[in-house]
Design goal:
This protein is mainly alpha-helical. It contains three helices and no strands. The chain is elongated and about 40 Å long.
Length: 73
């Protein structure tokens, strides 16, 4: 998995999590949780081309944990 893959999955999860703010336990919430779980499970499998990509991934990773926390409320 490379940073582009991470960004695609993260973007979809972010979109779905925003949809969740309008509902209570809907399919979007479940799908967002699944996508975020995939990213967390594959943390060690992400490859980077340079330090900039690694820093960008760290920022995405921090956001992943914030989104997951919101979804669990």
């Amino acid at each position: 998995m490379n940073l582009l893959d991470v960004k695609k999955i993260y973007s979809e999860a972010l979109f779905l999590s925003r949809e969740c703010k309008k509902c209570v336990d809907c399919e979007a919430c479940d799908k967002a949780e699944e996508l975020l779980d995939i990213l967390v499970e594959n943390i060690d499998n992400v490859s980077f081309n340079d330090i900039k990509e690694r820093e960008e991934f760290r920022e995405i990773l921090n956001n992943i944990f914030l989104i997951r926390k919101e979804l669990l409320k």
